[in-house]
Every structure is written in C-alpha cells, then in structure tokens.
Design a protein that fits this description.
- This protein has 3 domains: about 60 residues, SH3 type barrels, CATH 2.30.30.30; about 60 residues, OB fold (Dihydrolipoamide Acetyltransferase, E2P) (Beta Barrel); about 60 residues, Beta Barrel (OB fold (Dihydrolipoamide Acetyltransferase, E2P)), CATH 2.40.50.140.
- It contains no helices and 16 strands.
- A 6-stranded antiparallel sheet has the order 1-6-2-3-4-5, with no helix packed on it. A 5-stranded antiparallel sheet has the order 9-8-7-10-11, with no helix packed on it. The protein has a 5-stranded antiparallel sheet with strand order 14-13-12-15-16, with no helix packed on it.
- The radius of gyration is 21 Å and the shape is flat.
C-alpha cells in the first residue's frame, strides 16, 4: 500500500477496478485548506485518460508491472504474434491492446507491459518513431515545396499517412507512432 507522497510518473495503480498508469501529477498546497495531489491517469486496458484529485496522505494500491522486450512476428485470426527476445517464447495478443496496429512492421521491437502477479499482458508500447518505406503516392511537382501542403501516401505496412509533396514512392519516412504523422524523410 502506497500513499500520495509515493506517487511518481509511470507508477501503476489499481483505481476504480482498473489499472492506471500515472501520466502527470502535481502536489498542491493551497494557502487555505488541505494539500492534495492532482493526477492525470491513463487506463492500461482501454487507453482512456482521466483526471483525478487525491487528498494528501490518501492510500493508493500500487500494482507491480513488468516491462519485457518482444519482437513482432505476424498477425492472423488469433491476434498479433510476438516473440520474447530472451526466451524465444511466442505470445498472441488481441488487437484491442494495440494503439496503432496499422504501423506494425515485421521485426519491430516493442515493450509489452505485463501484470506481475497475474502474468497477463496489459498494454503494448511501440517505439516513439519508426522508419517505413513509401510504397505508393502521387508524384509531387518539382519545386513545389513553398507550402506545407500534405498528400496521402501508403507505407509498406498498408497504413496511409499524410506526407509533404516532395516525398516520392520508394522514399523512407520517419513516422511518429503516437499520432501516426510524418516527421521527416530518412536518407537511404
């Protein structure tokens, strides 16, 4: 059992019959009244972000989680299949635990967060950026780089992202996995 003074970013707690990760927190001591802790919590099962305020000294149930490196192999009707990098054990994960399954590329290393006592996967964290090849896009006009106009492009995983006009078929692009947005062109 932990208290609000033990709260830190990334800590996982049991709250309202769900497991939440603390995204942000702030200890507040107003001039009048009691101190409190304002938090932003992200559900590890649904991905929903909520805000909650705990009174100072309030007890919270800390949940032990383990972060393990896995490699993405393939997907089929049973889910997305990953291999543990240390034991070579394979596990199938339901698509609802993935935030952006359309960006999953074979061989991609991800972190799977497991509930330590129950050994059940809670969520999958992809790397912040991934590099993918553009397989199809309309050709851009030469010299048309003055505006921030974007065009649709299909990448090697089948996902569609918006890229600048100067990106052509065969180019490698860096994509932010949180927003599925174009970051920059990568030199080959």
């Amino acid at each position: 059992m932990a208290t609000t003074s033990d709260i830190r970013k990334g800590m996982c707690i049991d709250f309202n019959d769900d497991i939440y990760s603390i995204v942000e927190f702030q200890h507040v001591k107003p001039g009048k009244g009691n101190a409190f802790v304002r938090t932003k919590l992200k559900s590890l099962t649904s991905g929903k972000v909520i805000e909650n305020t705990f009174p100072a000294g309030h007890n919270v149930n800390e949940v032990r989680v383990e972060r393990r490196k896995f490699q993405y192999l393939y997907n089929d009707e049973y889910g997305y299949h990953f291999m543990d990098n240390s034991t070579y054990e394979q596990v199938a994960i339901d698509v609802k635990l993935l935030e952006r399954p359309e960006l999953m590329k074979e061989g991609l290393e991800v972190d799977i967060i497991f509930h330590a006592e129950k050994e059940t996967p809670l969520t999958i964290e992809m790397p912040q950026y991934i590099v993918l090849e553009v397989t199809y896009t309309e050709p851009g006009l030469r010299g048309d780089t003055a505006t921030n106009t974007l065009k649709p492009a299909t990448v090697e995983t089948g996902a569609e992202v918006r890229v600048p006009l100067f990106i052509n078929q065969g180019d490698l692009v860096k994509i932010d996995t949180a927003s599925a947005s174009y970051m920059e062109r990568v030199k080959q």
